[in-house]
């Protein structure tokens, strides 16, 4: 309540400022601050996420341990004491959770029960301080979740999604227009899949060609090495192309996903350094229990590791790692702290397309893999929007995902998870779409490297503001 009151006061002060008397950069900063406040107030004052999402409390626990054991581990002498202090607070946090949770539906409960069990398994096996009391608190929390009455799942409505787009992303397209963009992208990608497959084998569908494609390293160590080699090749490739100027001195360590992070991370994920200290590394986490991966990204083609080239590009170069590096080195203290899912996931999806365009992908079979990933994301965008404007149903998404090769037993879980994050699932496809539009508009005037520089050096700002920054640069250059 104290934080909400403070932010509402700050919001009132910001609203008194007249944007018209500010220069463009100050206007952007003002808009970003308003977006951040609006997002927090929507989740914690209006939607009251702390009352309905039990996984919020478990994420606080798990991400906190990750920060101490990995992110802040440069200060070795403080790691043990910080970890002990953090773990000591877990029983109190879970007690508060039991008092706060009042209206969670069965989908959130199912996800939280799975996460609680995974967290219990981790604490049971790990050598951690205060283990006994923490395990008891976690087991009591799981018992509490299982005892809650099952409430029907109702996805957030149209007004909520429009609020996310308007207040958190400053995105002004109508929901129907956004759905039509995603649908057109889906149809275009499916056609490209068929055309690419015909060049490989005119007698086979792309589904059959991909079903025969497997990446099967002998063991987890070999799989991690496969990813590590790919990260280095991507880094070398983009440095050689010289189309994105970025500081790349901080290493990326490819690691097995820690047991305590598996409940909150996908089969492959990236965790950025907290500081710009060159001794600190980014972590590219891989769930490397090969052949045993059960996740929302499991597919008929083996699992997400069959997509290792595109996954590596998305998470590292030129995707999340490069983008995070640029953001954390910005001089602007506001933009250095702000990460926008719309820009962040849009850029990473664009990065996957970019490696194909620039010739890094020279195998038509791998091109099929990349195109299928694009189609998968368009379905997520269509679901995100369509279910809230009555143009798409969960059953439509399940049918289309099965058509892309995802197993029947996993698609229901996939769709369930996607519905929990309204506004996020569209970020990949629509963010990429907006970046491509900006490039079409400005690349001929700027060249590709300068376009990328102007796109990225302003931070993760709304795309209409990116356009205004570039137009201002062009005016100043031509004056």
Summarize, please:
The protein is mainly α and 479 residues long.
Radius of gyration: 23 Å
Kindly estimate the percentage of residues that lie in beta strands according to DSSP.
Answer: under 5%
SSE series: HHHHHHHHHHHHEEEHHHHHHHHHH
Q: N- to C-terminal separation? A: 51 Å
Instruction: State the assembly state of the protein chains.
Output: single chain
Count of runs of 4 or more consecutive helical residues: 22
What is the overall silhouette? globular
Give the mean pLDDT.
90
Number of strands: 3
Question: What share of residues is helical?
Answer: 55-70%
Give me some keywords for this one.
479 residues; mainly alpha; 3-stranded mixed beta sheet; 22 helices; globular
Describe the structure.
It is a single chain. By secondary structure, this protein is mostly helical. Helix content is 66%, strand content 3%. It contains 22 helices and three strands. Helix 17 (364-386) runs antiparallel to helix 18.
SSE blueprint:
Layout lengths: L1 H14 L8 H23 L2 H4 L2 H17 L4 H13 L1 H11 L5 H20 L5 H17 L10 H12 L5 H26 L5 H6 L8 H22 L10 E5 L11 E4 L10 E5 L21 H8 L4 H9 L4 H5 L3 H17 L6 H23 L7 H10 L4 H12 L7 H20 L1 H9 L6 H16 L1
Parallel strand pairs: 1-3
Antiparallel strand pairs: 2-3
Helix pairs in contact: 1-2, 2-9, 4-5, 6-8, 7-8, 10-17, 12-13, 13-16, 16-20, 17-18, 17-20, 18-19, 20-21, 20-22
